[in-house]
Amino acid sequence: MDYQDIFASACKEIQSKTSHGKVADYIPELAKVNPEQFGVHLETVTNSGFSFGDASTPFSIQSIAKVFSLSLAYELVGERIWKRVGVEPSGTSFNSIVQLEHDDGIPRNPMLNAGALVISDILITQLDNPKKEFLEFVRLISGNASIDYSSRIASSEKEMSYVNNALINVMKYFNNINNDIDEVMDFYFHLCSIEMDCEVLSKSFLFLANKGKLTTTGEKIINPSKAKRINAIMQLCGFYDQAGDFSFKIGLPGKSGVGGGIAAVLPGEYTIAVWSPRLNKQGNSVRGIDFLEQFTTMTKHSIF
Amino acid sequence: MDYQDIFASACKEIQSKTSHGKVADYIPELAKVNPEQFGVHLETVTNSGFSFGDASTPFSIQSIAKVFSLSLAYELVGERIWKRVGVEPSGTSFNSIVQLEHDDGIPRNPMLNAGALVISDILITQLDNPKKEFLEFVRLISGNASIDYSSRIASSEKEMSYVNNALINVMKYFNNINNDIDEVMDFYFHLCSIEMDCEVLSKSFLFLANKGKLTTTGEKIINPSKAKRINAIMQLCGFYDQAGDFSFKIGLPGKSGVGGGIAAVLPGEYTIAVWSPRLNKQGNSVRGIDFLEQFTTMTKHSIF
Amino acid sequence: MDYQDIFASACKEIQSKTSHGKVADYIPELAKVNPEQFGVHLETVTNSGFSFGDASTPFSIQSIAKVFSLSLAYELVGERIWKRVGVEPSGTSFNSIVQLEHDDGIPRNPMLNAGALVISDILITQLDNPKKEFLEFVRLISGNASIDYSSRIASSEKEMSYVNNALINVMKYFNNINNDIDEVMDFYFHLCSIEMDCEVLSKSFLFLANKGKLTTTGEKIINPSKAKRINAIMQLCGFYDQAGDFSFKIGLPGKSGVGGGIAAVLPGEYTIAVWSPRLNKQGNSVRGIDFLEQFTTMTKHSIF
Amino acid sequence: MDYQDIFASACKEIQSKTSHGKVADYIPELAKVNPEQFGVHLETVTNSGFSFGDASTPFSIQSIAKVFSLSLAYELVGERIWKRVGVEPSGTSFNSIVQLEHDDGIPRNPMLNAGALVISDILITQLDNPKKEFLEFVRLISGNASIDYSSRIASSEKEMSYVNNALINVMKYFNNINNDIDEVMDFYFHLCSIEMDCEVLSKSFLFLANKGKLTTTGEKIINPSKAKRINAIMQLCGFYDQAGDFSFKIGLPGKSGVGGGIAAVLPGEYTIAVWSPRLNKQGNSVRGIDFLEQFTTMTKHSIF
Q1: Which residues of D touch A96 (CB under 8 A)?
Q2: Nearest C-alpha in D relative to C267
Q3: CATH number of domain containing B30
Q4: C265 Cα distance to chain centroid
Q5: Which domain holds residue A154?
Q6: So where does substrate get bound (chains A, B, C, D) (predicted)?
Q7: How far is CA A136 from the centre of its chain?
Q8: What is the ipTM of this complex?
């Protein structure tokens, strides 16, 4: 299918609408961003790309990075990873403590904050130099050696991390955190602080559209079965308590972050990254979701 | 792709394994079935079919019928149906009352019992002769004029319907049931009592693999966007609190019933119906899930 | 202590204030009452009584009758009654289904609707002619042979009983209801339909202030230990999710009803019944609570 | 009433029974205590005292100290204290996070860990030298200048404080903690580390049986209305999810600690402190509750 025209037409239509929603303000650094920005990049598995708007402006990818940490941890640890974190959607908001308490410290899925903290704990155990090696992994899959943590954002998160502190303490109580709490939190904050622009972000997800291999070099990142399973997890758990709605309207596996970014995957075809800072009450980008709904409706192409 | 060999090989492998799990016993009639039965039928959108085992033995499709009632109601009422029932996965078991109470009588999704009761209420309002017209709809999509309700099963359900009674009373309290409680319950019990064999069941789902049209006559049942959305709902909500696990292992939208049946869809390709009465603790067929995992792993083909 | 002056002064003070709150409207019959009425009666264990205002106007005692059914069932069945209903406060509203589902069908306490339904089920099993014999018991403890059910109120409740239907169905599912659901509901609605005025109501509670004996004839209704325990249950569970606040402000065991009545007990001293139809959001009489707070503050006398 | 004979007889009866239950082991220091110890002391408002068994052996009073911190904070702050903590029983275990999340960071009552953390936060704001001044308060009400914190116990708690860390972080998120988390936790751990023997403990509670005044000097600690209200809170919330059962069997306001101590109050008459380290599953002393049930049954005297 030729995406270029549909892509351009969907971009213009969304940009012409008045935007609504609120920029994330619980992290001081995120609140400073210009809320009117809007960028998109689509990259096919055959390495064609289309950009629109602020597609080259770096932003804080926040929770989208949970897909990268899951991919690396899953490849390192294999199926026994699921003893420590589930694969079921939660039906509650991203930072809910309630279900965690009922499930004896096993988070429902790795896309929730609690689950991403467990994945962070696993990576700290597995890696000699966790922050450095994780960054190398992200640079590898994105094909971009300049990707880095933002220490400014990481520090900003640390100041407002009461709910994450609560979550990790509950899991430590249930013996589902093996490393020092402060070390896990530090890794997690760095992970969430990574900055990318839409083009780099869409390229970073391409291995998930390509059965686990880089489209550029053919290098295997994870095996096809794991790529399929990560897509399945994104489909059911990637948008917190809006997962059903996103799946219903857009029909692609994907992941959002409170920085306003969304990355989505049409397996075998393309990845798409969209960014616009205003969020709806579930914490997902309003314009990002509007654009993806428009685009997939026009292409008549989804996983369903 | 040529499914025939993989199909045959997956069937044999599953049948050779010892089966475990328990036949549903909360409904007296269901408890009487021979637990060792196992049947599968795959039907492609080009109307090729492959059968194995007890694929021609009728069984009680139970909750799988919720997909049929949702399809008809959605076509009749359109998008305003979502004011009365959500599209989010629930994270709880199929008959949980807890979330219903929190969400002011709006069920989380139409695959939960509560949601299917609301859909039944909508059909009663929309149809002049609800039970008759619904049956005609099921006969149309299955291409089989002999499909019928089992009054034996419907009566058997009625005797043990305490939780469903509780659910419908809570929703009536919240004004989300418009018709008489007994009439809605009677319709719901009939709906769940429909009997089909695997071949007929897989053919009944083909319109969902074919953008809403019958593959035989080309007749439009629902529009493509609605077919996509029903698949999305099955993907996230079709297996109760095993939805994530099913999506993760198998990667197809589908729906299970406590009679031991499962119907699944690979959009654009095929539908598959599998039946084996022994259930796991989430109420899904043990052998059905094992078979579908085996089959999709061998075909290396899913929506992801 | 001489209560007369304090009583009169507290009555006047409350009556002089503007009343607020809303009359119960979920039962059509209750909504018809004049909301400005206010009556009080205090009766000592030495059979002195003081009345004020509308103390001789009969009203629907509603949930206050749960104390009578508990007293009779407890006397008939003894301590094994606590296998079917707990004695812990619930922390939730009177008709919550949530906790019931978590506790496997055992209601938290007999003052919740669910608990009173279990007590009704026990009485139906224990008594040959449940409605007749229960009425005789109430006539005995009140010393008033004209007390009766209001079939008007009982029918009115029946029409709006969705939540109670939900509760009893959940308990039936968990095997904690032995008799026919309709029979238990009919008994429960009759129980709640009893009408009394403040004077009769306060006299009906006197055996709980007098170690289980009637103050008039000395006849034993229940033994002292059971009277103490019923008072303890009222203290912790008599005002739904306002139990702590009532205990804190007033410091007497008591029970409220959505008809606007409250009966309270100072063991060894007196009982007091107050009635005023406007309710707060927890379903308790606004003026009733204001009066009792005023009165116990002035007497400086409570159980604490 | 002459308590001496009943007291002696109840003590002997309890001591003759085989003890069961488990010593608290979540804090290493508590696990080291000899589990067979048993002590009781009763002190009347006229300053007569009776001791039995290990009544002069100091033990860790743990959560019983929450009554002291509440008393001091309530006296300092007055009724506006209830904007930050409720007075309702919780229906859940002492360290549940669930209700806290639902109630927007306002703990249900000051006897739960979360509530005691808020009270600690208030004292830190109110006092110039919180730990020193609180200790002076406890020395004053106990009439014992040698009472002190155990730094050994306080450090031991700190190591295992994951759930308390979770609770305080949730409340900080909801803006219900004003001071530094570490400072509040340090104060709370010291508070819980106080050691007393039964005699001193019972004397420390006497002002609550004496309308807020010391029985020795007549000095006012808190006013009568506040004393009544603290008793009411203990009655409804002093024994976590066994509050109803304790009230039902014993009928006295009181407070337990995981060190195996219980202090109880019969207003106008006496206080009683009992200690035995083995706990039931709700975290209350098995022998302590058995003794108090025996004793109040024999005296036929409770608040009810």
Answers
A1: 101
A2: D304
A3: 3.40.710.10
A4: 11
A5: 4-299
A6: 63, 113, 157, 164, 188, 240, 258
A7: 17
A8: 0.91
